[in-house]
Amino acid sequence: QVQLVESGGGLVQAGGSLRLSCAASGRTFSSYTMGWFRQAPGKEREFVSAISKSASSTYYLDSVKGRFTISRDNAKNTVYLQMNSLKPEDTAVYYCAADQSRTWSQILATGNLRVWGQGTQVTVSS
After folding, report:
1. CA–CA distance from 73 to each of 12, 29, 34, 52, 70 (Å)?
2. Which of 9, 76, 87, 97 is the most buried (most CB within 10 A)?
3. Which of 29, 20, 22, 24 is nearest to 74 (CA)?
């Protein structure tokens, strides 16, 4: 089973940018659909973005469309989330997640992936 380690979080002013990275262990990274979730204190977890195994398909939460971009480098076993025009409401712990068995449609329908990282804090100040 793949193991995930996020990095790149931090404190940024509104309007700024951050790039989150998620490094995966193992040799089968390209067989995993990858995604990003976030959870702010006292709020429900949100499914922020996902990218298919071959990067041919992507998903974005409506509130981040046009500001966030997900990408992956299968040669480096890494998925990225480029976050631009950040807003205070983007403040949350961001989690990387992976799923090898569910189909793309199943992932979009359930909004869940099986394997999770430990999370990285993103704080956007106003």
Report:
1. 25, 9, 11, 12, 11
2. 97
3. 29
Helix, strand, coil percentages, rounded to 5, for the chain:
15, 45, 40
In tens, the pLDDT along 15-74 reads 999 999 999 998 899 999 999 999 999 999 999 999 999 999 999 999 999 999 999 999
Cα dist from 32 to 50, 60, 121, whole Å: 11, 18, 24
Q: Give how far the C-alpha of residue 113 lies from the chain's centroid of Cα atoms, to the nearest Å.
A: 11
Contact 45, 35 (CB under 8 A): no
Residue-wise pLDDT for 97-109, tens only, equals 999 999 999 999 9
